[in-house]
């Protein structure tokens, strides 16, 4: 096997027009910068189908050699998934490190992971990606073990590495299974307490974390880069009617999200797939915003979250001319989308109102009579109901006019009550 050169910062980007549009090239540049490389040159072209050996044709291969030498580049980033053999053949010919789109995204995720769970999820995705490279990419591993006590028709090195890889994958899956159970228990407790859950989803760098911080008062990390948020964050949020909801800030989606990542981040994405409401955050200033909406909805379909009610939040309106905060509704008056700026706070009050409207519970007005020994019920009513009026007679009986959630009427089971018009 050839020696794989160390990766560096100076990168040559390769983008061929096959099925994807030119906007993918802009995304590749952002991915390259997010990974910490310095893109020094972009090679573009078009082909009907990839070359089975090098992905690019012979002419482009020679062009790449010259560009690498001219710019002293030490890594080539492809905006396409490469087969293990294509990756190996390119590195042998070019003499520099070659990384495909999936490997680039995995590398960014590895840099962003901060929590124990996040690191496990990234390692699982990387191992699954690596397992395909063990099959055909590294032919030197097909040798059998040698040396005293190891000669003969034993296990080949490739089989040993594959077995150890499978063992590590199973260990990580078991650990993530425990994390998944803990998350499931947390969601079950919130459902029992009837606390609604809202997940922020959207294309990467749409401003989800900034909006999350604005709504909850949290201080999660934000940056103008792809995948700034990797580890999910949950925070409580109070609505104008004093109702509590739980907000979840999730990992950003991207075109052609590698299947390894979707599988590895199953427990994280479940925050979206089991939410009561999705806030689909959209960069209103993005030129390709319509396409990113389609891509996000495709990922939501993949994780079986496409049936959950969704409100579109068009963010970054401060970067647009003559766009004011507003709520768009359908013919029945139901909210469809809210136009806001998480950076300036414009329209956040409208978003709060929409959330309160969606999760509002009918209030019922009642007159109730509490005996002097029912002080515990009185205390509960003062904590969860609106007390409109209270009168206490000479015998110590309290006459209260209250406004209470319909689901909390069970508090009045042992109390004399009267309906009010």
From TrEMBL:
One GO location term (cellular component): cytoplasm
Residues holding GTP: 202-209, 227-231, 249-252, 315-318
UniProtKB keywords: Cytoplasm, GTP-binding, Magnesium, Metal-binding, Nucleotide-binding
Signal peptide: none
Family matches, as Gene3D superfamilies: 6.10.250.2860, GTPase HflX, N-terminal domain, P-loop containing nucleotide triphosphate hydrolases
One Gene Ontology molecular-function label: GTPase activity
Residues annotated for Mg(2+) binding in this entry: 209, 229
Cofactors (names): Mg(2+)
PROSITE patterns, alphabetized: G_HFLX (PS51705)
InterPro entries: G_HFLX_dom, GTP-bd, GTP-bd_M, GTPase_HflX, GTPase_HflX_N, GTPase_HflX_N_sf, P-loop_NTPase
Pfam families to which the protein is assigned, alphabetical: GTP-bdg_M (PF16360), GTP-bdg_N (PF13167), MMR_HSR1 (PF01926)
Compartments, as annotated in UniProt: Cytoplasm
Residues in Hflx-type G domain copies: 196-363
NCBIfam families according to UniProt: GTP_HflX, PRK11058.1
Quaternary assembly: Monomer. Associates with the 50S ribosomal subunit.
Function: GTPase that associates with the 50S ribosomal subunit and may have a role during protein synthesis or ribosome biogenesis.
Family: Belongs to the TRAFAC class OBG-HflX-like GTPase superfamily. HflX GTPase family.
HAMAP family recorded: GTPase_HflX
Protein name as it appears in the record: GTPase HflX
Organism: Candidatus Methylobacter favarea
Species lineage: Bacteria, Pseudomonadati, Pseudomonadota, Gammaproteobacteria, Methylococcales
